[in-house]
Write a structure and sequence with these properties.
Elements: H1 13-19, H2 25-38, H3 43-50, H4 54-63, H5 68-101
């Protein structure tokens, strides 16, 4: 994440929110789902829990078509979930490779 230079003395709430985002959050969340996978939960079931279907995003974007701030948050949430899913998939693939080697 790109660091922001603070120029306003009274930052807007949206700027404060962006500054508070934890860059390690997707890795932590993916690790939580990976832990469930290691305990026997189905990878496909966990993928469905992590993923946000594009159709759902489109429906929400249409519902909030006049609210640009809401649309921006929805896009960020969608990208975040896709990032968590990609990290989770990588962890699952590595585990399966490790099982084949041993």
């Amino acid at each position: 994440m790109i660091a922001r230079v603070q120029t306003d003395r009274n930052p807007s709430p949206s700027n404060m929110l962006l500054d508070d985002i934890d860059p390690m959050a997707p890795q932590r969340e993916a690790a939580l789902f990976y832990g469930l996978f290691l305990r026997g939960h189905s990878a496909d079931c966990l993928r469905r829990d992590i993923d946000v279907p594009r159709k759902l995003l489109d429906k929400l974007m249409k519902r909030h078509r006049n609210e640009l701030a809401v649309q921006a948050r929805l896009q960020r949430a969608y990208q975040y979930r896709k990032q968590v899913l990609a990290i989770f998939d990588e962890l699952v693939i590595r585990e399966r490779i490790k099982e084949r080697v041993h």
